[in-house]
Design brief:
507 residues; alpha/beta; FAD/NAD(P)-binding domain; Enolase-like, domain 1; 23 strands; 23% strand; globular
């Protein structure tokens, strides 16, 4: 079975997708004598590196064996956010009564139409990552096929040899397999296959309550599936702020997601048409029966078949080893994105590619470690975070002051009926230097950038108080935290001095 056989169903939208990102009739170009940069992998990191380098005049070759656009376009951010949007409409309709809106006939979900919409929008967006776009508009030589290192400055794609001055490995990562007895035989979905569905599973068991598992659990529940979310931790989103995880848990309970936490999965099996997951909690085993199982427990780097040993590029289970400049153990070869980085997000892959362009082509010394990396889990409410958590600050011996603004005290959130969230900002103790923040809100992912900008620009929380925020907006919560910090500066001594000044001015 070829990789393209995994693109299902092959309707007009997926045909358009494939025509853009893996054209069946594509003819690889005649290679240049030597390239400034050869990039293996056309996901986010590879596309940004190739386009950026070509944009400054470099001769660039881009190699992709499967689908240009990588996980983000094909099996990640784009398709997931499309169906999440549909599920949010359902949430709005089901909660309409509290806004004085009656929906007498209830909600009818056309699951096939939801998935068709996703495929249509994905195909529409795919033109940005298309092979033809990169060839005709970006000036990149695009090679479709398996790329592997064959020498100190050569990469082969089939019978073609590409010579390079510098190379970038941007082959990404794939869904991790988990050693659960019987799971392979029972069969399961991952983020790479769940978007192939055209029929809604009546019951869905989701293994892993991290971002992928939580997003899909809530989405499929709202789309009409009965959902059980299973994790060995004692709460969902175990890496996030506990208060944030608790807020999402409460939303899940309202939606009817069954939370199976503090659970160890013992085995899985088929029982006729059903799939059975056996879990153990508190010494007691029970069975969860489902029509489909979704596995969402991590990512494994794609390092196989690249010939890395031939060129001295070291790697392990975590991915390719790179230094802070994203240089591998071979000084002529760099890596970027999920294949080598802890934070496996589209936006960090983009940022890493920009670092690689400067360091590989222009003798730069840009460092990965200086980046302030925000991220967001797109449940409802969303959970967005940047910088340090209190536990990390404690581990590093950094004392902090934490400021919290709940949305039930923010006018726009009250008007919107979106009061179950907060903004939490951590500052270095005794100052307004922002070290980290978590936001729980319907559009937390949009709001976190204000705090990220402040951190990158060395803007303190007190200064944010002087920034006029339109009223009424939910972002006003961030400005309120600036006010909260400024009130801490009103010490007894300062207050005494103010009293004296004001008393004198009344004479």
């Amino acid at each position: 079975m070829s990789d393209l056989d995994l693109i299902r169903p092959m309707d007009e939208h997926n045909q358009t997708l494939v025509a853009n990102v893996h054209p069946p009739d594509w003819v690889n170009p005649q290679p240049a004598d030597r390239y400034n940069l050869v990039v293996i992998g056309a996901g986010t990191a590879g596309l940004v590196a190739a386009a950026g380098a070509a944009g400054v005049g470099a001769r660039v070759a881009l190699v992709e064996r499967h689908l240009m656009g990588g996980d983000c376009l094909n099996v990640g951010c784009v398709p997931s956010k499309c169906i999440i949007r549909s599920s949010r409409v359902i949430g709005e309709i089901e909660g309409a009564a509290r806004f004085g809106i009656r929906v007498p006939d209830g909600v009818e979900v056309d699951f096939a139409a939801v998935m068709q919409r996703m495929r249509e929008l994905r195909a529409r967006i795919s033109v940005n990552d298309a092979a033809g776009t990169f060839r005709d508009q970006k000036g990149v030589d695009v090679f479709i096929g398996d790329g592997q290192f064959t020498g100190s400055d050569t990469i082969s794609v089939g019978a073609t040899t590409l010579r390079f001055k510098k190379a970038v490995i941007a082959t990404g990562a794939r869904a991790s397999a988990v050693a659960i007895e019987g799971l392979g035989e029972a069969g399961y979905l991952t983020n790479e296959t769940i978007f192939e569905l055209t029929e809604r599973p009546r019951r869905l068991a989701v293994i892993g309550a991290g971002p992928i598992g939580c997003e899909m659990a809530q989405t499929f529940r709202r789309l009409g599936s009965e959902v059980a979310l299973i994790d060995m931790s004692d709460h969902i989103l175990p890496r996030e702020d506990p208060d944030a995880a608790a807020a999402v848990e409460e939303a899940f309970r309202r939606d009817g997601v069954e939370l199976v936490v503090s659970a160890r999965i013992r085995s899985a099996r088929r029982d006729g048409a059903e799939k059975v997951v056996v879990v153990e909690r508190g010494g007691v085993e029970s069975e969860i029966r489902a029509d489909e199982i979704l596995l969402g427990v991590g990512r494994s780097p794609n390092v196989e078949g690249l010939g890395l040993e031939r060129v001295g590029v070291e790697h392990d289970r975590e991915g390719i080893r790179v230094d802070d400049n994203l240089r591998t153990t071979n000084p002529a070869i760099f890596a970027a994105g999920d294949v080598c980085m802890k934070h496996k997000f589209t936006h960090t892959a983009d940022a890493a590619a920009r670092i690689v362009i400067q360091n590989a082509l222009f003798f730069g010394r840009k460092k990965l470690s200086v980046l302030q990396v925000p991220w967001c889990t797109y449940t409802e409410p969303e959970v967005a975070h940047v910088g340090l958590y209190p536990s990390e600050a404690k581990q590093r011996g950094i004392a902090i002051d934490t400021y919290v603004q709940r949305f039930d005290e923010v006018d726009r959130a009250i008007a919107d009926g979106e009061e179950d969230g907060f903004v939490k900002v951590h500052c270095r103790k005794g100052s307004d230097e922002i070290l980290g923040a978590t936001i729980v809100a319907r559009h937390a992912g949009d709001m976190i950038s204000e705090i990220t900008l402040a951190m990158v620009g060395k803007i303190g929380l007190g200064t944010i108080a002087s920034v006029i925020h339109p009223y009424p907006t939910q972002a006003e919560a961030i400005r309120k935290l600036g006010d909260a910090y400024n009130r801490t500066r009103l010490t007894p001594t300062v207050k005494w001095l103010f009293d004296k000044i004001l008393s004198w001015s009344r004479r």
